[in-house]
Each structure stands twice: as C-alpha cells, then as structure tokens.
Write a structure and sequence with these properties.
The protein is an alpha/beta fold. It is 45% helix and 19% strand. Strands 1, 2, 3, 4, 5, 6, 7, 8, 9 and 10 form a ten-stranded mixed β-sheet that branches. α2 links the parallel β1 and β2.
Length: 326
C-alpha cells in the first residue's frame, strides 16, 4: 500500500513538472510608453498624464521613455522592433503614423503593416505663433515675407511632421517665402521663438496658449474651421491670413504596439484606455490642453482612423512635392 501511494505521488509530481507553466495574467510587470519626441512638447505632456492614469487602471507602472530624433522615426522604430508582448507601447501622432510614409523616400517602417493599434486618444489643433515684435496677423506677415525674401524663418518639431506640412501648405497658399528650421521637438522651437532666433513657430494651441497669454509670444492663428471656446480671441488661420477656404490641421495621438501583439493583450490595453479617457480628470486635462476627445478605441477602429488620416493628407503632400525633404 505504501509503495503504491509512493508511486502515485511520484507520478503526479512528474506530470506537474512536465505540464507548461500557467501563463501569468497581463500585465505582470512594468510597461514602457515610448514618446518619439523630446520632453517638453505637447505630445510628451499628454503622454505622461495618460501613462500615469493607465498604470493605475492596469495595476502596474507605465514608464515614459523619450526617444526623439528623425521627426519621430527613431522612437517608432524602437517599438516596432520590440517584442510583441504588450510591454512596449508607442505614443504615436499624425506626424509619425499618417505623414511619415508619405514624406519619406525610404521609410524605415510602415504605419499600416508594422503596428497594431490600441486607441486614438484625441487631437490638438495646430497653431502658428510669432514673437512679440512681429506682425500680429498672418496676412501682414505673409506680405512682409514676400517683400523681404530670406529674412523670415519658422521653426517646427521636425521635417515631415504635421506642423511642418501645415506651414508649407500655408506658404503655398500665400506665397510667403519663409525658411524652415527643423528642431527635435516643439519645446526647443518655442524657446528659440521666445529668444528671438526665429520669427515664427508652429505647435499646438494648448501648449502655446500660456506663453501667448503671458506676452512671450503671440498666436496669430489656429488651424480650425471656427474659433475655439478655449481661446475666442485668437482667429483661425483662414481669418488671420485672409484665406478663402478653411485651414484645418489636427495633431492627433494614437497608442500603438508592435504588429502581432496578442488580441487579449490589445483588448486589455484598449479597455484600460477607455476607462482612462472617461475619467473626469482626463476630461479636465484635455480641455486645458485644447485637445478634442475624438476617441477611436480598439485595433479596428483606431487602424481605420489612422488609414483615413493618411489618405486625407496624401494629396496635400503630393502637391507640396519635394519641398518637404528640404
């Protein structure tokens, strides 16, 4: 009897050791959220608030890593080449995932083929700002630039970004010969504007607004069809430049993961993101930053949105041509 019990126990132990270990519930450790731009800009600000709230929903820390460079391509490549296990997330934008494959002659990743998507989190309208001593309307600025070729420069967060494309589109419509100065993020460009090194800067309304109100810069136009309740004193770009048609440009944010991330992991991240975006604290933050909560939650909805945005900007980029590579 004792021998039989011993053999049964040995058999059970052998089976237990040969069975695969039960998978741990996701997430079992710290996640990282890669922001493909330097600290201090509008994307970084939103990403940090989202990461903190997401971590609380998931019960794990979400660490923000800034990997700026190549107009967001370096950070995007970092996540693209990471394991598809849900522990490396990308806080992508219209620049990195709608425009990159349209403006780069030899793109190093495909927004459509190399990533799965968790959620589009909303968008911030683009704004143009000038230094305190500059003309206070885009119409006057364009006239001054045409009369003084080579005198006026503008800064953007990088070549091929939505901000860059927006100003080049404005230049095309007004004939203003302004020289592009690319920076590694919106923060450094704004610092140079306030320091007098450049004449105009392009960024997002929410980030620029405090500097506008303090008098350190002057926002001369926002890229929306109508004036915004957040800043009713600031004209639209179409108004300020005396353009016949509306001038729209929105810097949206989307959370992406490497292609092939398990569906259950993507669902967990999407559910947590939905919960985050529905909190009063997030609603307050979005309002303060001038971000529209245009949400598209889940891989199918977010992917469709990203593809539609790329299709919208494709003819604009084609019309601008090689100027985007300068």
């Amino acid at each position: 009897m004792q021998r039989r019990h011993f053999l049964q126990a040995c058999s059970a132990a052998t089976i237990a050791t040969t069975l695969p270990a039960r998978a741990q519930a996701y997430p079992a450790r710290t996640l990282r959220l890669v922001v493909p731009f330097p600290p201090g800009g509008p994307v970084d600000s939103f990403a940090r608030f989202y990461a903190e709230a997401l971590g609380k929903q998931l019960g794990q820390s979400v660490i923000v890593e800034n990997k700026g460079g190549a107009s967001g391509a370096l950070g995007s490549l970092d996540v693209k080449n990471s394991p598809a296990d849900g522990y490396s997330l990308l806080f992508a934008t219209a620049s990195t995932h709608a425009l990159y494959n349209l403006t780069e002659a030899r793109p190093r990743y495909s927004a459509a083929d190399d990533f799965d998507y968790i959620a589009v989190l909303g968008g911030a309208p683009i704004a143009f700002a000038v230094g305190p001593s500059m003309p206070k309307t885009l119409k006057t600025l364009a006239i001054a630039a045409r009369h003084n070729p080579g005198k006026y420069n503008y800064g953007s967060p990088g070549t091929g970004t939505l901000m860059h494309v927006s100003v080049e589109r404005f230049k095309q419509q007004t004939g203003a010969p302004m020289m592009h100065i690319p920076y590694k993020g919106a923060g450094p460009a704004m610092q140079d504007l306030m320091g007098g090194a450049i004449e105009m800067c392009v960024g997002t309304l929410g980030v620029m607004l405090p500097f506008h109100r303090s008098g350190r810069m002057h926002i001369v136009g926002v890229a929306t069809a109508q004036r915004l309740a957040l800043a009713p004193d600031i004209p639209t770009i179409a108004e300020s430049a005396d353009l016949a048609a509306p001038f729209d440009a929105m810097l949206w944010n989307v959370v992406a993961v490497p292609r092939g991330t398990p569906p259950a992991v993507k669902k967990a991240l999407a559910d947590a993101s939905k919960a985050v975006m529905n909190t009063p604290a997030m609603a307050t933050t979005l309002a303060e930053q001038g971000i529209s909560a245009d949400l598209h939650i889940g891989d199918a909805a977010a992917s469709a949105y990203v593809k539609a945005e790329a299709a919208k900007w494709k003819p604009v980029v084609a019309q601008l041509g090689t100027v985007l590579g300068q």
